[in-house]
């Protein structure tokens, strides 16, 4: 009777790749990268996903983001936010040869002399009123008359006019050439939070990341 060769047992390990946390950002990942570093989270476990300011929550609500960076006190019934994980100082964006561009800093009262941008698309108006307040602390009116689009479209409008966009210092260094970011000294910095869907329980990794990011500010 012929000897049959011993059966070869092949063990196949199927590695299940764990998806990185998908973090929604607007404009630049630099601020998010600083938050991740301060939280001590592994950078390779993060995927930065840009979102459109005109429909800021579409990707989150579609399940294409795990969490997103937001500013000020968001009040959306289906979204829950963390405590502050950073603070973003205020600034104004203008073209490089704008009358305000050569100053070391400006007042929000200076913005009233120039056309500014109105609330874009589905962006919450109550948040936009904090980003670009309709009335300054001294009672001046900011002329929110221009259409807000992508960062490239914003830069094109700024470059071709005397308009000004009241924004955040975190954009310094990432705006297109020809645009200047000037500090605004008399508005408080905006608290930055992490927002996720209320009815979607966070994964253990996401919960740990949010908690670590909150602790990094409290230290």
Count of DSSP strands = 11
Characterize the biggest β-sheet. 6 strands, mixed
| Percent of residues in β-strands | 15-25%
**Count of spatially separate domains:** 2
How does CATH name the architecture of the largest domain? Answer: 3-Layer(aba) Sandwich
Overall 3D shape: globular
Describe the structure.
With 219 residues, the chain is of the alpha/beta class. The protein folds into 2 domains: 21-87 and 190-218, D-Maltodextrin-Binding Protein, domain 2, CATH 3.40.190.10; 90-183, Periplasmic binding protein-like II (D-Maltodextrin-Binding Protein, domain 2), CATH 3.40.190. The chain is 21% helix and 23% strand. The chain is built from 5 helices and 11 strands, in the order βαβαβββββαβαβββα. The strands form 3 sheets. Strands 1, 2, 3, 4, 5 and 11 form a 6-stranded mixed sheet that branches. Strands 9-6-10 form a 3-stranded antiparallel sheet. Strands 7-8 form a two-stranded parallel sheet. Helix 1 links the parallel strand 1 and strand 2. Helix 1 crosses helix 5. It is globular, with a radius of gyration of 23 Å.
């Amino acid at each position: 009777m012929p000897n049959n060769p011993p059966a070869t047992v092949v063990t196949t390990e199927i590695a299940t790749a764990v998806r990185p946390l998908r973090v929604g950002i607007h404009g630049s990942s630099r601020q998010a990268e600083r938050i991740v570093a301060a939280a001590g989270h592994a950078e390779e476990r993060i995927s930065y996903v840009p979102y459109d300011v005109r429909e800021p929550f579409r990707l989150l609500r579609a399940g294409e983001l795990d969490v997103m960076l937001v500013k000020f006190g968001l009040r959306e019934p289906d979204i829950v936010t963390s405590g502050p994980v950073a603070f973003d100082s205020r600034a104004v964006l203008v073209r490089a040869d704008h009358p305000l561009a050569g100053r070391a800093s400006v007042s929000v009262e200076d913005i009233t002399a120039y056309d500014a941008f109105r609330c874009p698309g589905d962006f919450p108006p109550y948040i936009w009123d904090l980003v670009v307040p309709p009335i300054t602390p001294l009672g001046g009116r900011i002329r929110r008359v221009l259409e807000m689009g992508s960062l490239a479209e914003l830069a094109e409008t700024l470059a071709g006019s005397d308009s000004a966009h009241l924004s955040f210092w975190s954009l310094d260094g990432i705006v297109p050439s020809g645009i200047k970011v000037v500090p605004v000294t008399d508005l408080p910095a905006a608290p930055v939070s992490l927002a996720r869907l209320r009815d979607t329980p966070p994964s253990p990794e996401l919960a740990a990341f949010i908690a670590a990011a909150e602790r990094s500010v409290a230290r």
